C-alpha cells in the first residue's frame, strides 16, 4: 500500500470509515472469494464517500486474493431501489473485474419485480457481473452461514470498531516502519556526509519495533486461537489474516527493520565513538591551546619579584588569581583523563594509539604548566622571605644607627659597660640578619634559576629575562652590606669612645682613692706618729720608718697625679669635662702639702731627738761629767723642747700643735 493511502486513512478516510458504509467482514464465498458488504441505510448515502470507502477496502487484499473475485452483498432492506441501482452501477465503475457476484438483499416490502428484473437484465452485459435479488433468509444458498455475519443470519463475528482500531495500528506501523526503513537505509548505505546529516530518523526505532511485535502477537493469537467470539463454537476468524493484512508483510517489515536497526545501532556506536573521540580531541586541544597560549602568557607577564614585602604580597595575590584560572582547566584535564582511560579499555588498536597520543600530549602540557605554576609560587615565597628579611635587617640597622647617633652621657662606668654590651648585641643581631639575608637571596636566585620553561618552543632559562630581578637582589644585598659596614665603623668609634670613658671613670675613681689614701696617711702621721723614741737606737729606727712612710705617701701622690694627668688627656680626647677631675687635683695637692709639712716637721723632730739622745747617752757614760757636757745636753734638750712647742703651720694657715704630748713624754723619759 502506498504512503498516500496511509496518509488518507489518517486524515480523510478515518471519519468515512467510521460510518461503516462498506466493510470486509473476513467471510468468503464458495470460491474462496472475499465477501464485500455494503449496508445501505434509510438515510441518504453519499456516493462519493461510498466510492472512497470501496477504493480503500479494495486496496487492502493482495493481488492473488483479488484474482479470486469478490462477492458483494448490497443490503437494500432499508434503502430505496434507485439508491441500490446507483450502488450496483458504481460497482461496475469501481471494481468491474474483481466482482464475481452481487447479491442485493430485497426488503420485506418487495420492489416492483418487473422493473428491477428488467433493469438488471438490460445492464447485465455492460456490468460484467451477475446481479441477483435475494431475501436475507435465502442468502445461505450462495454463501455459507459461517461466512455471514449475524446481520444476515450467519455466525461470523465482526466488530467494525475493533477492525478499524487494528487497521489504524497496522497502517500506523506500516507507515512508520516503511518510512523508518527508507531513512535507515539512507543512513546505513549512504555516504559519510549523508549519514552525518540524517543520523536521527523521524521515528523512534524501539517504539516502532515494539508496536510491530504487539501487532504481530495480536495477529498470531487471533489466527491460531480464533476470534474473540470464537469461544461460542463458531469457526476461527481473523479480520486481518494473511489474505487481508498479509501477516508475512508485518514479519518481513519487522525483520527488515531489525536488520536495518542493528546496522543503524552499529553505525551510531561508531559514530558516537568517533564523535566522542572528536569531542575529546577538541577539548584536549582547547586545554593545550589555552595552557600554551593565554596561560603561558599570563606566567610570562608575571616575572617580577617586587621591591618590598607589600609588592611581593600583591604579586602573590595576582598569582593566586592565575592559579584559579588554571585550576578550571586542570579540572577539565582530570575529566578528560578519566574519559580517555575509559575509552582505552574498550577501544580498538587504532583508537588506542590516537587516545594514548592525546593523553600523552595533554599530560605533558598540563604537568609542564603545573610545574611552572609551582616554581613561580616558590619564587614568590622566596621573594617574600627575602623582602621580609630585608625589611627586618633595615629596621635593625636603623635601630643600631639611632643608638650610635645618640649622645652618650652615662653616669658611671657600669652604665657604660651596659651600653657597650647592648651595642655589641645589636651588632651581632645585624650580622646574623645579614647572613640570613644572604641565604634568602641565594635561595631566591636558585629558585629563579630552577624555573622550568613555559613551553618546549622556548626552552631557555627564565633567568635570561630576569636580569633586572637578579640585579635587584644583588643590589639589595650590597646595600645592606654597605650599611652594615658603615655601622660597624661607627661601632668601632663608639666602642673606643666608651672604653675611653670607662678608663676615664676608672682614673677618676682611682685618683679619688689616692686622695683618700693620702688623707689616711696624713691622719696617721698626725695622730699616731708622735713618739720620738726612748733612746737613740729607737729614735734612729723610727726615723728610718718615717722615711719609708714618706716614700709610700710620695708614691701615692705621684700615682694620683698620673691618674689625673691621664684624666685630662682622656677628657681632651673625648672633648668633655668631668665633675670630679677639677676638684680632685686641688684636694690631692692640698693633702700632699699638708702631709709634706707634717712629714718634714716629724723628720726634724726625730733628728733633734736623735741628737739629744746621743749627747745624753755620751754624758751618761762618762764617769766624770764636766759642765761643758752638761751645758751641751741642756742646750740640745731646750732646742728639742722649743721645737716641740712650735705648731705645725699648714699652707692654708691652719696650726697644729702636739706640745703637750711631746712635753709630757720628754719629761717623763728624760728630764727626770
Automatic annotation (TrEMBL):
Keyword Heme: no
Listed InterPro entries: CRAL-TRIO_dom (IPR001251), Spectrin/alpha-actinin (IPR018159), Spectrin_SESTD1 (IPR056804)
Record-linked Gene3D superfamilies: 1.20.58.60
Keywords of this entry: Repeat
SUPFAM superfamilies listed in its UniProt record: Spectrin repeat (SSF46966)
Presence of the UniProt keyword GTP-binding in the record: no
Cited Pfam families: CRAL_TRIO_2, Spectrin_SESTD1
GO-annotated molecular function: phosphatidylinositol-3,4-bisphosphate binding; phosphatidylinositol-3,5-bisphosphate binding; phosphatidylinositol-3-phosphate binding; phosphatidylinositol-4,5-bisphosphate binding; phosphatidylinositol-4-phosphate binding; phosphatidylinositol-5-phosphate binding
Boundaries of every CRAL-TRIO domain copy: 1-160
Similarity annotation: Belongs to the SOLO family.
Name the record gives this protein: CRAL-TRIO domain-containing protein
Organism: Gouania willdenowi (Blunt-snouted clingfish)
Organism classification: Eukaryota, Metazoa, Chordata, Craniata, Vertebrata
The gene coding this protein: sestd1
Amino acid at each position: 500500500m502506498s504512503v498516500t493511502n496511509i496518509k488518507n486513512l489518517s486524515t480523510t478516510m478515518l471519519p468515512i470509515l467510521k460510518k461503516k458504509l462498506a466493510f470486509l467482514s473476513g467471510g468468503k464465498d464458495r470460491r474462496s472469494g472475499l465477501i464485500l458488504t455494503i449496508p445501505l441505510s434509510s438515510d441518504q448515502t453519499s456516493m462519493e464517500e461510498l466510492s472512497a470507502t470501496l477504493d480503500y477496502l479494495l486496496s487492502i487484499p493482495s493481488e492473488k486474493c483479488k484474482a479470486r473475485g469478490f462477492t458483494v452483498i448490497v443490503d437494500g432492506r432499508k434503502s430505496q431501489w434507485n439508491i441500490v441501482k446507483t450502488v450496483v452501477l458504481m460497482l461496475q465503475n469501481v471494481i468491474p473485474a474483481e466482482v464475481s457476484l452481487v447479491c442485493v438483499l430485497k426488503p420485506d416490502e418487495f420492489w416492483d419485480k418487473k422493473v428491477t428484473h428488467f433493469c438488471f437484465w438490460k445492464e447485465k452485459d455492460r456490468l460484467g457481473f451477475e446481479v441477483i435479488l435475494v431475501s436475507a433468509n435465502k442468502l445461505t444458498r450462495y454463501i455459507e452461514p459461517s461466512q455471514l455475519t449475524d446481520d444476515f443470519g450467519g455466525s461470523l463475528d465482526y466488530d467494525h470498531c475493533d477492525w478499524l482500531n487494528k487497521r489504524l495500528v497496522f497502517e500506523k506501523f506500516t507507515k512508520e516502519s516503511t518510512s523508518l526503513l527508507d531513512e535507515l537505509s539512507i543512513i546505513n548505505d549512504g555516504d559519510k556526509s549523508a549519514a552525518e546529516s540524517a543520523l536521527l530518523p523521524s521515528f523512534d526505532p524501539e517504539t516502532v519495533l515494539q508496536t510491530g511485535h504487539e501487532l504481530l502477537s495480536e495477529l498470531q493469537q487471533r489466527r491460531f486461537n480464533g476470534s474473540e467470539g470464537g469461544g461460542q463454537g463458531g469457526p476461527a476468524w481473523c479480520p486481518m489474516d494473511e489474505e487481508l493484512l498479509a501477516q508475512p508483510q508485518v514479519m518481513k517489515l519487522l525483520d527488515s527493520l531489525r536488520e536495518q536497526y542493528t546496522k543503524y545501532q552499529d553505525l551510531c556506536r561508531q559514530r558516537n565513538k568517533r564523535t566522542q573521540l572528536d569531542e575529546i580531541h577538541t577539548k584536549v586541544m582547547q586545554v593545550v591551546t589555552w595552557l600554551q597560549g593565554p596561560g603561558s602568557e599570563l606566567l610570562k607577564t608575571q616575572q617580577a619579584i617586587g621591591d618590598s614585602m607589600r609588592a611581593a604580597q600583591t604579586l602573590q595575590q595576582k598569582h593566586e588569581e592565575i592559579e584559579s584560572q588554571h585550576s578550571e582547566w586542570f579540572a577539565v584535564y582530570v575529566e578528560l583523563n578519566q574519559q580517555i582511560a575509559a575509552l582505552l579499555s574498550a577501544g580498538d588498536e587504532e583508537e588506542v594509539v590516537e587516545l594514548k597520543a592525546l593523553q600523552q600530549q595533554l599530560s605533558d602540557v598540563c604537568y609542564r604548566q603545573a610545574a611552572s605554576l609551582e616554581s613561580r609560587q616558590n619564587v614568590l615565597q622566596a621573594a617574600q622571605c627575602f623582602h621580609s628579611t630585608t625589611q627586618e635587617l633595615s629596621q635593625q640597622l636603623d635601630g643600631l644607627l639611632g643608638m650610635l647617633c645618640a649622645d652618650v652621657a652615662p653616669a658611671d662606668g657600669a652604665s657604660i659597660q651596659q651600653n657597650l654590651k647592648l651595642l655589641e648585641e645589636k651588632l651581632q643581631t645585624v650580622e646574623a640578619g645579614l647572613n640570613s639575608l644572604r641565604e634568602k637571596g641565594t635561595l631566591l636566585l636558585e629558585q629563579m634559576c630552577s624555573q622550568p620553561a613555559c613551553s618546549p618552543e622556548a626552552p631557555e632559562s627564565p633567568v635570561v629575562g630576569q636580569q633586572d630581578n637578579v640585579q635587584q637582589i644583588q643590589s639589595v644585598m650590597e646595600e645592606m652590606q654597605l650599611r652594615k659596614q658603615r655601622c660597624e665603623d661607627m661601632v668601632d668609634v663608639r666602642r673606643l669612645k666608651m672604653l675611653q670613658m670607662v678608663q676615664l671613670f676608672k682614673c677618676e675613681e682611682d685618683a679619688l682613692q689616692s686622695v683618700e689614701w693620702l688623707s689616711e696617711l696624713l691622719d696617721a702621721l698626725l695622730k699616731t706618729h708622735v713618739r720620738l723614741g726612748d733612746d737613740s737606737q729607737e729614735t734612729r729606727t723610727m726615723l728610718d720608718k718615717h722615711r719609708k712612710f714618706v716614700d709610700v705617701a710620695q708614691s701615692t701622690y705621684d700615682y694620683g697625679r698620673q691618674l689625673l694627668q691621664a684624666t685630662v688627656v682622656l677628657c681632651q680626647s673625648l672633648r668633655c669635662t668631668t665633675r670630679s677631675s677639677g676638684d680632685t687635683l686641688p684636694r690631692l695637692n692640698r693633702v700632699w702639702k699638708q702631709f709634706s709639712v707634717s712629714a718634714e716637721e716629724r723628720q726634724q723632730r726625730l733628728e733633734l731627738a736623735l741628737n739629744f739622745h746621743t749627747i745624753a747617752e755620751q754624758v751618761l757614760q762618762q764617769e766624770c761629767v764636766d759642765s761643758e757636757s752638761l751645758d751641751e745636753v741642756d742646750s740640745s734638750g731646750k732646742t728639742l723642747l722649743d721645737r716641740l712647742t712650735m705648731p705645725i703651720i699648714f699652707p692654708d694657715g691652719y696650726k697644729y700643735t702636739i706640745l703637750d704630748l711631746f712635753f709630757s713624754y720628754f719629761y717623763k723619759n728624760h728630764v727626770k
